């Protein structure tokens, strides 16, 4: 079945630094990937839709300059949290859907802690 | 407006007992419906999905769900829970288009009583 690999699984960074999270579709091509953020004991909130070869579409209230998304190939999307602050600490999850198939495959998530 | 409601925030059941997690949705057309499970610190795993056809859907780990159009519901059931079923469960709805987003419910945390 479709597999989405997300890396790293967890990361700790200092305030003011930037962190990049990768999301790869391992055995299929994904023209669209989705990035979610999940606060403790809460549901997933869609941050943005990543489109291969074009600009990402951000949800209302998500700072596009803070959460940079790049979808340079059909198998890789990256989320960069720029100038991270402690309030950016969260669980970030990506997902993708193989063209022509039904259902969404999720990565295993990245736990970001900003200190 | 499109929405998914999981009215139960936290449910505790005894091991071996039956389980039903509720999910109601509001959507313009018949959506694709999903149930996902999330263990602590992990990503989401698909339990089952409904697109069309038989309204009773079988999934992995012994779970099933029934789509009831008249009630706009897609409740998840399991006849006998195991301690390993303790996790967070999310109901989600999505459109047929692969480029469009899915909407998640707020989740139901399942605890298992020994």
Layout of helices and strands:
The complex is a heterodimer of chains A (115) and B (114).
Chain A (H helix, E strand, L loop, with lengths): L3 E4 L2 E4 L5 E7 L6 E7 L5 E8 L5 E2 L8 E7 L2 E6 L8 E7 L8 E2 L3 E5 L1
Chain B lengths: L2 E3 L4 E5 L4 E3 L2 E3 L5 E7 L5 E7 L5 E3 L5 E5 L4 E6 L8 E8 L8 E2 L3 E6 L1
Parallel strand pairs in B: 2-12
Antiparallel strand pairs in B: 1-4, 3-9, 5-6, 5-10, 7-8, 8-9, 10-11, 10-12
Describe this structure in words.
- The complex is a heterodimer of chains A (115) and B (114).
- Chain A has strands spanning 4-7, 10-13, 19-25, 32-38, 44-51, 57-58, 67-73, 76-81, 90-96, 105-106, 110-114.
- With 115 residues, chain A is mostly beta strands.
- In chain A, the strands form two sheets. In chain A, strands 2, 4, 5, 6, 9, 10 and 11 form a seven-stranded mixed beta sheet that branches. In chain A, strands 1-3-8-7 form a four-stranded antiparallel beta sheet, with no helix packed on it.
- In chain A, a hairpin with a 2-residue loop joins β7 (67-73) and β8.
- Chain A is globular and about 40 Å long.
- Chain A starts with a strand and ends with a strand.
- Chain B is built from no helices and twelve strands.
- In chain B, the strands form three sheets. In chain B, strands 2, 5, 6, 10, 11 and 12 form a six-stranded mixed beta sheet that branches. A four-stranded antiparallel beta sheet of chain B has the order 3-9-8-7, with no helix packed on it.
- Chain A binds chain B through residues 6, 31-32, 34, 41-44, 46, 49, 51, 91, 93, 95, 97-109, 111, and chain B through 32, 34, 36, 41-46, 49, 51, 90, 94, 98-99, 101-102, 104-107, 109.
């Amino acid at each position: 079945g479709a597999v989405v690999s997300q890396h790293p699984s967890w990361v700790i960074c200092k305030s003011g630094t930037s962190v990049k999270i990768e999301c790869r579709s391992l055995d299929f091509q994904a023209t669209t990937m989705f990035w979610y953020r999940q606060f403790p004991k809460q549901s997933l909130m869609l941050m943005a839709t990543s489109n291969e070869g074009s600009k990402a579409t951000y949800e209302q209230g998500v700072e596009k300059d803070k959460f940079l998304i790049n979808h340079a190939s059909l198998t890789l999307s990256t989320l960069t949290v720029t100038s991270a602050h402690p309030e950016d600490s969260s669980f970030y999850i990506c997902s993708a859907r193989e063209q022509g198939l039904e259902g969404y495959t999720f990565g295993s998530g990245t736990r970001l802690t900003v200190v | 407006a499109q929405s998914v409601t999981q009215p139960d925030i936290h449910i505790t059941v005894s091991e071996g007992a039956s389980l039903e997690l509720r999910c109601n949705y509001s959507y313009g057309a018949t959506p694709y419906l999903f149930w996902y499970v999330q263990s602590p610190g992990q990503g989401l795993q698909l339990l089952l999905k409904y697109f069309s056809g038989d309204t009773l859907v079988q999934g992995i780990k012994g779970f099933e769900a029934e789509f009831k159009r008249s009630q706009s519901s897609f409740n998840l059931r399991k006849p006998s829970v195991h301690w390993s079923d303790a996790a967070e469960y999310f109901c989600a709805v999505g459109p047929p288009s692969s480029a469009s987003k899915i909407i998640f419910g707020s989740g139901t945390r399942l605890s298992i009583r020994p």
